[in-house]
Design goal:
Number of domains: 2
Shape: elongated
Strand order of the largest sheet: 2-1-6
Strand content: 15-25%
Largest sheet: 3 strands, antiparallel
Order of helices and strands: HEEEEEE
Distance between the termini: 91 Å
Number of strands: 6
């Protein structure tokens, strides 16, 4: 055998002896015996990073189900500062969706129907 073949075959032997299960560490390296590892520390997948900062499913906010609202009368849309949006008249019996929360802007109550768009509570009903 040549020196190149010995190096390749020696490398292959090293690779074959270091094959291990995904839940274990290689036992051919000193200091990697199972008794040396602290309890609860397992191997992680490369590139997975530390996921300890990700919220658990129970900590995530629950999505709100839309509330169908029907306009009792022709109504304007308002911004989050309470100003009327120009050319935004919605016709009577028009259906709009809301998250169901009532917002108070400058002492008046509104339903939010879109981003930065609100209609007055007095102008809507939940059924027709």
């Amino acid at each position: 055998m040549t020196a190149t073949n010995q190096a390749i075959s020696g490398h292959a032997a090293t690779v074959a002896s270091s094959v291990y299960d995904a839940n274990e560490t290689p036992s051919d390296k000193p200091g990697n015996t199972p008794s040396d590892k602290p309890p609860g520390s397992g191997t992680t997948n490369p590139g997975s990073g530390d996921n300890s900062s990700m919220p658990i499913d129970s900590e995530l906010p629950t999505p709100k189900i839309g509330l169908k609202l029907y306009l009792k009368r022709a109504s304007y849309q308002y911004t989050k500062t309470g100003k009327r949006v120009p050319r935004s008249l919605l016709s009577k019996k028009n259906k709009v969706m809301s998250n169901g929360e009532v917002y108070t802007i400058k002492g008046k109550k509104y339903y939010r129907i879109a981003y930065n768009r609100y209609v007055k509570v007095a102008n809507v009903v939940t059924h027709y």
